[in-house]
């Protein structure tokens, strides 16, 4: 048995089978490179579902975690912790004036936003409009907010108060507003849904209707935040500011942390005792996140993500010329989707064999999200691997 097979056996016996997995045991990472237990090296163009968005084990994050772990790992939220205050100030300073609630994951941040909206509308307004094809996480409320029935199947009864509308269709959203509506929630780019970018008219139209009807506009920037799209937060591409924004993934540079930011005028909606997270905003998580912000700023990573993103998009777009089953390339910054007319699983598996990690979502959409530190030469190397694999797929197709 190889070491990989031994670990797979442990999973088979002892770990719940909630994920589809590739037969790779990752043990080490540095920047864009990840290494497995057999010593194989990979170019990681989807580092931890974008959690390691500034690359694996960024030295600033590693050193912040190491130093903080020696001082204090956790402080209960019944006391103050300096780093939580500083991180909240940093997030607000990088986004919009308001206050922050800290938690540990994306779904938890989404839950926080849902609870804030419910409290804001209490008692008469509680309905939240979310988008078809969206993704907001795996808790009961988050799967209900997620506008894809297959994520909800088998988990009924689901919480009430969620209504769905077509993404990028302002009239469809407007038609769902009732006197019970309190908020509209969306991802500015649907990630798991297949890298679908919200149009300018859609976002500005939503802002206008939310202002007119006193609804909260909630942006789920869990995947799009922290420089990924070529702005620190994706909403900054549009001439609007959301009322609430949720963050996770890259926020901790690899360390778990989630956050909900609400505009100042609504930020005191949740009062003591109404919401909490035992681990939320621990000094260790906040140290990792502050170091992540520092790394992004000092490394000019947001601007680089915009530039490298254009390069990545152009290189991937060229694949359309060579392969008729490459349908569309779309995205923003370093969040790019390649929609195929064939199943993507074969492509992802073959890429792994050749040393490239990418993701496939919605069965046919390759999701490419390298760390913000990616270089053009690394993009060239990754696209060359993908080209080889697509060539093989074409051959297989023509033989069958
Ligand atoms: C847009 C969006 N929202 C929420 C989540 C859930 O985050 P988590 O898995 O940290 O709970 C995800 C995770 O992929 C996401 O992409």
Account of the 3D structure:
This protein has 400 residues and is of the alpha/beta class. The protein has 11 helices and 17 strands. Helix 2 (59-71) packs antiparallel against helix 8 and helix 3 (82-94) packs parallel to helix 8. The model has no long low-confidence stretch (mean pLDDT 98). 38% of the residues lie in helices and 19% in strands. The radius of gyration is 21 Å and the shape is globular. A hairpin with a 3-residue loop joins strand 16 (359-361) and strand 17 (365-368). It has a 7-stranded mixed beta sheet, with helices on both faces. The chain folds into 2 domains: 3-57 and 300-399, Alpha-Beta Complex (Aspartate Aminotransferase, domain 1); 59-298, Aspartate Aminotransferase, domain 2 (3-Layer(aba) Sandwich). The chain binds pyridoxal-5'-phosphate (PLP). Pyridoxal-5'-phosphate is lined by residues 49, 105-107, 110, 135-137, 187, 191-192, 220, 222-223, 248.
Brief digest:
By secondary structure, the chain is α/β, with parallel strands linked by helices. The chain contains eleven helices and 17 strands.
What are the key terms here?
four-stranded mixed sheet, binds pyridoxal-5'-phosphate, 17 strands, 400 residues, Aspartate Aminotransferase, domain 1, single chain, globular, 11 helices, alpha/beta, 38% helix, Aspartate Aminotransferase, domain 2, seven-stranded mixed sheet
In percent terms, what proportion of residues is strand?
15-25%
Strand order of the largest sheet: 4-12-11-10-7-5-6
Number of beta strands: 17
Whole-number total of structural domains: 2
Write down the Rg: 21 Å
């Amino acid at each position: 048995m190889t070491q990989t097979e031994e670990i797979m056996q442990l999973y088979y016996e002892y770990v719940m089978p909630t994920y589809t997995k590739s037969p790779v045991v990752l043990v080490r990472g540095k920047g864009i490179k990840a290494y497995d237990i057999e010593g194989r090296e990979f170019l990681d163009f989807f580092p931890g579902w974008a959690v390691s968005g500034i690359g694996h084990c960024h030295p600033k994050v590693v050193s912040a975690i190491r130093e903080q772990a020696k001082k204090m790992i956790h402080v209960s939220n019944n006391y103050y912790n300096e780093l939580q205050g500083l991180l909240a100030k940093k997030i607000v300073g990088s986004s919009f004036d308001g206050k922050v609630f800290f938690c540990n994951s994306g779904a938890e941040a989404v839950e926080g936003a849902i609870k804030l909206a419910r409290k804001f509308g209490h008692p008469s307004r509680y309905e939240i409009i979310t988008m078809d094809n969206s993704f907001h996480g795996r808790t009961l409320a988050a799967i209900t907010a997620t506008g894809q029935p297959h994520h909800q199947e088998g988990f009924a009864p689901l919480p009430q108060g969620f209504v769905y509308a077509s993404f990028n269709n302002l009239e469809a959203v407007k038609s769902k507003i009732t006197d019970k509506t309190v908020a509209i929630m969306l991802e500015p780019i649907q990630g798991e849904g297949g890298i679908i970018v919200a149009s300018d008219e859609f976002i500005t139209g939503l802002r206008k209707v939310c202002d007119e009807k006193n609804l909260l506009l909630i942006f789920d920037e869990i995947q799009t935040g922290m420089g990924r799209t070529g702005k620190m937060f994706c909403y900054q591409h549009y001439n609007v500011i959301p009322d609430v924004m949720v963050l996770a993934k890259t926020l901790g540079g690899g360390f778990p942390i989630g956050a909900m930011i609400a505009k100042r005028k609504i930020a005191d909606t949740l009062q003591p005792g109404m919401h909490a997270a035992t681990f939320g905003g621990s000094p260790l998580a906040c140290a990792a996140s502050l170091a992540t912000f520092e790394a992004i700023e000092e490394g000019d990573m947001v601007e680089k993500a915009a530039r490298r993103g254009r390069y990545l998009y152009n290189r991937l777009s060229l694949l359309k010329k060579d392969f008729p089953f490459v349908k569309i390339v779309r995205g923003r910054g370093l969040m790019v989707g390649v929609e195929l007319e064939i199943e993507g699983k074969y492509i992802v598996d073959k890429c792994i064999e050749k040393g490239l990690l990418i993701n496939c979502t919605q069965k046919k959409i390759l999701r490419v999200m390298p760390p913000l530190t990616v270089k053009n030469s690394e993009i060239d190397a990754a696209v060359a691997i993908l080209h080889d694999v697509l060539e093989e797929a074409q051959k297989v197709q023509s033989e069958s």
